[in-house]
Design a protein that fits this description.
Pfam families: DUF805 (PF05656). This protein is 59% helix and 0% strand. By secondary structure, it is mainly alpha-helical. It has one domain.
Length: 154
């Protein structure tokens, strides 16, 4: 259990794809559970769902473990240290924006459409990079290879 907590709450070191997938599934289940509990209109709304502060706070809390696993996977891929944090900040902006009259939607004004497509492309690229591409072989500046024999993943 402490390994799961460490996986979802620490930002240093490297993790392999299998640990990223475990963290991804946990964060997706937590995210979807919060949506069902705090803003079920998300699943049935024809347009952008109404903003809900309880749901937004729930989603922002779940961005912490999502950012933690992303940072560690980007570390494994030897990406710049700030990139995973930038994606987390972008996710926080997209999550909170509807509360400040900024709609992020493919049918919104030009700024909302631009942010929507930028977020979608960024999410898909990070998903592919994190979930399907092997990390750096051997040690890198973020630590030892999590797939090397005898290594305990972070």
């Amino acid at each position: 259990m402490t390994d799961i907590i460490k996986l979802l709450t620490t930002f240093d070191g490297r993790i392999g794809r299998s640990h990223w997938w475990i963290g991804f599934v946990i964060t997706m289940v937590g995210t979807l559970a919060g949506m069902a509990l705090f803003n079920p209109a998300v699943f049935t709304a024809e347009g952008p769902p109404p903003a809900s502060w309880p749901d937004t706070i729930w989603q922002l809390v779940w961005l912490i473990p999502a950012t933690a696993i992303t940072v560690k996977r980007f570390n494994d891929r030897d990406w710049p240290w700030w990139l995973g944090y930038a994606l987390g900040a972008f996710g926080a902006f997209v999550t909170a924006a509807p509360h400040f009259a900024f709609q992020i939607d493919p049918d919104a004004e030009i700024a909302g459409v631009t942010v929507f497509w930028l977020f979608l492309v960024t999410f898909v690229a990070a998903f592919i990079d994190n979930g399907f591409i092997r990390g750096t072989h051997g040690p890198n500046r973020y630590g030892p290879d999590p797939l090397a024999e005898g290594q305990t993943p972070a």
